[in-house]
Amino acid sequence: MSFALVANIFATPSEKVIKSEIKEVTVFQNGAQINEKSSLNIGAGETVLMIKGKSPYIDGKSIQVKGFGDFTILSVNVQSNYLEEKVSNSLDSLQSILDEERTTLEKLDAQAEVLKEKMTLLNTNKNLGGQNNGLSMVQLKQALDFYEKEITGIKDAEIKNRQKSNQTKEKIQRLERQLNESSNKPIVPVNDILIKVSADRTVTGELAISYLVGNAGWFPKYDVRAKDISKPLDLRYKAEVWQNTGNDWNNVKLKFSNATPQKSGVIPDLKKWDLTYARLTTFDQNSFVNIGSVSGTITDSNGDPLPGVTISVKGSGIGTASDLNGRYSITLPSTAKRLVYSFIGFRSKDLVISGDLMNVVLEEDIQMLNETVIVGFAKSNAPLTRVRGESSLDVEKYESNIQATTTIENQTTVEIAVDKPYTITSNGDKLLVDLKKYEVDAVYEYFAIPKKEKDAFLVAKLVDWEKYNLLQGEANLYFEDTYIGRSILEAESLNDTLSISLGRDRSIVIEREKIDQNSKKRLIGSNYTESRAYKITVKNNKSSNVNLKIVDQYPISIVSDITVSLLKSSNGNVNKETGIIEWELTLNPGEQKVLELEYEVKYPRKEKVILDR
Hints:
The chain is mostly beta strands. Helix content is 15%, strand content 43%.
């Protein structure tokens, strides 16, 4: 073996720090894929290229590096760097304010010394004219006025000085306390990417780097506007995006994907179903009542607010993130039972929805990854080009205030690419990005269940809604140019028609009342016969015709000794299996209609049934 070959084998690779820029980000509902580009210039032999200061939340198993040039990539490592931790801007700002206040206090202390010296000098020379020299009355008055003016000015200045000093000291104490608490929090290191390359000669080239990162995400949001029930529905599709990855995304191309790379792609296994007696079978007995929305504040164990915490409805695509003060508010679908609170560096919490106010404390659980990933590539002289997979493109044209976007339908996912570059800083702030605007033909119908609610709800029914590639999300509702509340767009429905509730319309008046004279209880032989009767009055106070569906019910017996007879239903559509009765009405402006519901129940005199509920 030659000396040159031996030297080459045992030679220590040189190290070189290079820079890379984030060019494109694909944002998932939980996490993001970062795509970076970097140029390099290396000599012959092995070189370790170091890209410093990357996000501490990189998934080490996801990193991939592709090289373009006459060199070979030998390995890719990701390592934590505690020596170059990024101090947050807020920490720098606190220290700067503290330094300014300390300087102010020093100036106030110096001013107090000057005032003290002035008073001492004045007291030393207060012997008016000496003991042997008399003063005229005019001179005496002038001297007294002089001393009064000077002493008063000094005393006023001393009072103001003390007040400012006390205020400054209190502010310094608060700043020192806050700075100490912030400094004592666990150190989150940055990540360095180490790329070992080999070349036979001095070459230039480029690197394409991609990896998954946590502490970022997006949620679908909608603005649903209906001018009136004779015009199409205006649907604006938005992305509420946030990131607190530790790296700013400056002027990057954004894609929003419905993919879930964090979830396992393994097909589940259907195990044997062992059927046993009911008394040996356990069920989840947690009671559940839908409450519409939940809000609250999320803090750490010290009581400090946590911005950028992901709050999601378990088993759905509904979610939001906490703001800079740790506050959040989320609208719930009708099936919501649990909320999941997650934030990298803290233990996630999976909580039953217990009410409309849920304040949550997350506990720290920082476990930094330091994993090595080795990816092999052959030498390549290919130029750096952008390669696009085959996609079905659906390019829409919009008004000037809507972003130009491209919908890319892949085999298993859908992506929306925003043409305009965006800058999103790493501070947890939520940013709304307009994605699409649709003018959708809709069938409008009013819907009411007066047994539960006296108000009528306006529902827009969308046909062929699947072509819009919508996701389940919160929707802000506007009707007749007025904000009327929030709802859930159930885009994961299996129905051919997608229904969107546009909220209550109080111009339709509904009254359901019990008719006491027809509600009787009689004993006939060994059975009671009990009847109930209700009158439903509906009036249209709008200036246009409305289509209204009224829903009510009568009880269905599941015991042979109890019989139920429907006596009156005002020609409603009756489902005898469920007891549901539907009336489809068309009401002219100012028109009023009355519906009657009456049923009779027969049951044994030794038993009792509950008919009023």
